[in-house]
Amino acid sequence: MLDVLVVGGGNAALCAALSAREAGASVLLLEAAPREWRGGNSAHTRNIRCMHDAPQDVLVDAYPEEEYWQDLLTVTGGLTDERLARIAIRASSTCRDWMRGHGVRFQPSLSGALHTARTNAFFMGGGKALVNAYHRSAQRMGVAVRYDAPVDRLALRDGRFEASFVGGERIEARACVLAAGGFESDLDWLREAWGRNERGEWPAENFLIRGTRYNRGTVLRFMLDAGADSVGDPTQAHMVAIDARAPLYDGGICTRIDCVSLGVVVNREAARFHDEGEDFWPKRYAIWGRLVAQQPGQIAWSVIDAKALGRFMPPVFPGVRAGSIAELARALGLDEAAFVRTIGEYNAACRPGSFDHTRLDDCRTEGLAPPKSHWALPIDTPPFHGYALRPGVTFTYLGLRVDERAAVHFGGEPSANLFAAGEMMAGNVLGQGYTAGVGMAIGTAFGRIAGERAAAASRAQRGPAARRTTATPPGRATPADTEASDAA
């Protein structure tokens, strides 16, 4: 019988598969997507947030545990399990050597990705390169992989895993890791979760999905219906303000609009609705999707002038350009008088200071509601640019409750052989909010834990006399390894 079955195909699933194989288990990974779309949301990532007490390779200065924890505490508003959060934080300090051992390469913080050189390690080639590196390592080590293999249900008995089903096919294993993501690409589920707002709108009908179209939450729904303990609010998600022209699925990083802190954001009534400069962008960018979702029509516009150009990562689509504020209002379809008034009031409220986008500077507004706390420069230098924004959902936070061993819980009791990692359990750490790179930290930490624990559970079932097989080290393939990969 197979030792460990991994359900999912992203970072957490691959980390679990590799770790279980390193521990001597036979491993099969079931990826719902076809090969060309493998990797789930991880293919769209670009970095991981890492704790470190001193400069390390691509990371400068220090980012100690307590600062990392306080950053997470701030963005979640305290809706986090500190024990599990600190496991992920501490694991992030040592994971890069393990990742390099499986072919992942890093590079310094990208130009335009402000404030991340100290906190985030970027993947050379982005998330797609990371996924491909892990698959090459999995192939060398003899991890079997099947594509176009969506799991739709499990066989469970008293909280124990017995088998999964891909259509009518039953696949048994001694232990299982669930890493199949959230439900963000199930538009009906999103609509059900968000419901109708006070204006009679169905907000989710205007959402775009930044990530994979294959995260439909099928396994998550089955587990919740089967009595697994849940965690998280179904309306909470990693939700970013993205270009309204982005595709419905798989827009990824390039659709994000990163100039919010350098200008102002207005809604359909041409009114500002939040402090654009309250904190550094990597700590606050993920609140803007939810803010836009709360606006009429779930749409807003980010507005900048020529002074902001070159200070942010440019989006894939050019913005609407105009030579005057009035002309920009007409081009954006906003009420001209209201828009001119909003910009004029903002400009008049800006107080002189020393502008510095690399720190929390003293350029702020005075007597304006909502205020702009930092980086408040008048929007007065043509050409002016406007970018239409929609809520872009990355992944949802409703998930399975786990413990420090990544074990799935039923009625408060941990399963002996069923584990979860990645977005399926990220809600234990992320009750709300987000800070750049923390999702990959959670997935990497708990993916490795889940894989190791699943391998241990498998050994326990085989009995004390069972011989522990030795996994082939990364980089060294055997004929059996190649056969397993080819068969996948």
What report would you give on this structure?
The chain has 2 domains: 4-182 and 217-234 and 397-487, FAD/NAD(P)-binding domain (3-Layer(bba) Sandwich); 239-392, Succinate dehydrogenase/fumarate reductase flavoprotein, catalytic domain (Flavocytochrome C3, Chain A, domain 1, Alpha-Beta Complex). The chain is 28% helix and 18% strand. It is built from 13 helices and 20 strands. The protein has helices spanning 11-22, 65-76, 82-91, 95-101, 126-141, 187-194, 218-225, 281-284, 288-293, 325-332, 336-349, 438-462, 479-487; strands at 4-7, 27-30, 47-49, 106-107, 120-123, 144-146, 153-157, 160-166, 169-172, 175-178, 208-209, 230-231, 237-243, 264-267, 300-304, 320-322, 384-396, 399-400, 407-410, 413-420. It has a 6-stranded mixed sheet. Strands 11, 13, 14, 15, 16 and 17 form a 6-stranded mixed sheet that branches. The chain has a 3-stranded antiparallel sheet with strand order 3-5-4. Helix 1 links the parallel strand 1 (4-7) and strand 2. Residues 467-488 have low confidence and may be disordered.
Question: Outline of this structure?
Answer:
Residues 456-488 are annotated as: Disordered. This protein is of the alpha/beta class. It has helices at residues 11-22, 65-76, 82-91, 95-101, 126-141, 187-194, 218-225, 281-284, 288-293, 325-332, 336-349, 438-462, 479-487, and strands at residues 4-7, 27-30, 47-49, 106-107, 120-123, 144-146, 153-157, 160-166, 169-172, 175-178, 208-209, 230-231, 237-243, 264-267, 300-304, 320-322, 384-396, 399-400, 407-410, 413-420.
